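Entry 12.
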Amino acid sequence: MSISRFWQIRFAIPLALALTVGCGLVVRWRVRCADSEIRGRLLHQATAIARTIDPGLARQLAFAESDRGQVPFETIRNQLVAYGDFIRNRCVYTMALRDGRVLFGPESLSPDDPLASSPGTVFRQPDPRLFEVMEHGRSQVFGPVRDEYGEFISALAPVVDPASGKV
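Predicted 3D structure (tokens):
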């Protein structure tokens, strides 16, 4: 092996290693940026949706099967379907905390969708942060979280009654 070839190899390996590590760090940084951007967008969308829901209509929901077909339920459901179509998110849903249990209400999914929940269905594996949103009225995005429906990143925003300030 010639001396010049020896020096080429001696410098090529560390250079290749440095480039690999550097590219890996850049990719990692970009992934974190993209994740932050996606979470921010989801939180913004969830907050926007929550602000469009009339608290007076939401207050009329029992979060039970008897809601289906009633004006408040169908109005909110139609809003969620339209907004879900607009933001290209097929799963926009509502929940309420009743007697310590989380119940599903109107959602954008069609009733025959495998992820759909009938109004009043108990959410058996809610993330503890869900209770924080409902109790303290602060929007959050978290995940991925695995529950009985699969693995998701969720953005949750409360519908707040402007008169009382309550969720």
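Annotation: The radius of gyration is 24 Å. The mean pLDDT is 90.
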